[in-house]
Amino acid sequence: MGFLRQFLRHPQQLWLRRVNFQVHLWTGVILAIYVTLIGFSGSILVFGDELARLFDPSPWPAMNANGQTADVAVVLRDLRSRYPGMHIISVMGPTAAEPVFLSVLQRHRRITVASNPVTGQVMGEVPRRRSRLEWIYELHENLLARRTGRVVNGVGAMALLLLALTGVVNWWPGIQNWRRAMSVDFRRKWKRINFDLHSAVGFWGLVFVSLWAISGIYFAWPDKVLEYIDRLSPVVNALPPPVRVAPEIEAAPLDFDAILRKAYAVDPGTKWKGVIFPGARRSPLEMLMSRAPGIGRDYEDTLYFNPYNGEYITTWQYGVNKSFGDWFIWLQIPLHFGTHWGLGIKCLWAALGLALPLLAVTGLLMYWNRVLGRRWKQLRKASVGPFTGAKKSAP
After folding, report:
1. Is 275 left (phi over 0), alpha (psi -120 to 50) or beta?
2. Do the beta carbons of residue 275 and residue 287 sit within 8 Å?
3. Rg (CA), the chain
4. Taking the CB of residue 229, how many other CB atoms lie within 10 A of it?
């Protein structure tokens, strides 16, 4: 019988499949605690924005009921008046989550300042506060160990991908039983139900677990992954362009209103979202324009201007993907976090995240039922065997 035919009909008899089983088993045992923590924390963070609004509400209440927003130039003038000598790093417009202008300024220290969305007047510094979800983000992203934890997460993601690939080989029960392996028969005994749960959940979650593993590798080593993807398909528009300007010793004061008018002329149909001022002499001024409502930088255009003469340089449209490489890089965040397509997808991603601890628990129970439980019984029997049935001898 050929290898392929035997794999299709009687895969359990293949020695290569038995080796695959051992690799899957021991990788799963080693990663059990890790995937449980990652699965639970990831499911929680799918609803990170909702939980943040619940536990850490904005200190600034909604105050723009009429929908009119102050001109950003007014905001800038008041900031310069109230904080002379401080460098304005950025100004972001009001949003549903933060209904005020938020500006970041720095001199000897960095502060965030809130401005009234209607009058543009400074309301005060935003108090520094530690989010109740911050440690969960740090656990999920960096294992509470910063860059070292991020690298460990990358190694864990590679091991998770190995688990997924070896798992699908183990899952294949033969061409006569493959339909049964996709479901759970709750009429059977608990050991069989546990086996069916591990098999069925592993099958239905295979694609998602693999995608999470790939994105985890990308988050750990983005430059290396980007370099490799660029060889397969050029990354054209997924990353911002390296814009630099020639510094000038003498330059007229920056006319922000003129640049804003030019931004609307260059990028019609958009709405001003924020501005990032140059952080170095060769850095451009970045005007952020929103094409449509979205999460993070979705549907965001970045218009680059020369800060010395106000000339328009170029536009970077985030999310306008022009190659497979662009799509691959852009999809890592939405596919990993599940926060880009509404509440239904969030609920699905949160439920799928719980599949990881479920697979860990059911896998460990299977190992106990097949190996450890039997050895435990043998050890107990061996420890009490010599004394069983012993009788006292007469004096």
Report:
1. beta
2. yes
3. 29
4. 20
**103: phi then psi, degrees, rounded to nearest 5:** -120, 140
- The confidence band for 18, taking pLDDT boundaries of 50, 70 and 90, is very high
Q: Average pLDDT over the chain, rounded to whole?
A: 90
Closest by alpha carbon to 47, among 344, 325, 327?
Answer: 344
3-state SS of 301-363 is: EEEEECCCCCCEEEEEECCCCCCHHHHHHHHHHHHHHCCCCCHHHHHHHHHHHCHHHHHHHHH
Residues 378-383: what's their mean pLDDT? 85
Ramachandran class of 295: left when φ > 0, alpha when ψ lies in -120 to 50, beta otherwise: beta
pTM: 0.88
Residue of 48, 55, 59 whose CA lies nearest to 98: 59
188 CB contacts (<8 Å, ≥6 apart)? Answer: 196
pLDDT digits (tens, 9 = 90+) for 347-367: 999 999 999 999 999 999 999
pLDDT at 295 over 80: no
Grouping H, G, I as helix, E, B as strand and the rest as coil, residue 89 is: strand
- Judge whether 77 and 253 are in contact, CB under 8 Å: no
pLDDT of 251: 73
Cβ neighbours for 151, distance < 8 A, ≥ 6 positions apart:
220
Q: Judge whether residue 395 has pLDDT over 60.
A: no
Q: Report helix, strand or coil for 66.
A: coil
Q: 87 by DSSP, 3-state: which? A: strand
In whole angstroms, give the CA distance from residue 213 to residue 332. Answer: 10
* Both structure tokens of 384: 């009490």
Distance of alpha carbon 341 from alpha carbon 334, whole angstroms: 8
